Fold this sequence. Notes:
By secondary structure, this protein is α+β, with helices and mostly antiparallel strands. The protein has helices at 53-78, 94-101, and strands at 2-9, 14-27, 33-47. It starts with a strand and ends with a helix.
Amino acid sequence: MKVHLRKKKLKSGLTSLYIEHYKGHTTTPQGKSKILRDFEYLELYLTTDPKTDSEIKKNKETLELAEQILTIRKAEVYQGKYNLKNDTKGKVGLLDFYVQKK
């Protein structure tokens, strides 16, 4: 699972911050690839074109807060909160492993 901080410009002139949880992809019965991902909307907003020092400072603080939340979410993934399993581990033989490396 990969976790990313994303930005989206809104019609109101603000930029919304959200976290994307990418879980990989799967193939549908019709043969099409489907991306598996979830979104966590942080309800944090940046001013798109800051003009004053206070807007710049607020944007910087908001972005730092979003980065801290992202760090927490990444730690949760590594600690096993989402019960992810590595299905390929142990399925490759030792000789096959060396052949793949070359």
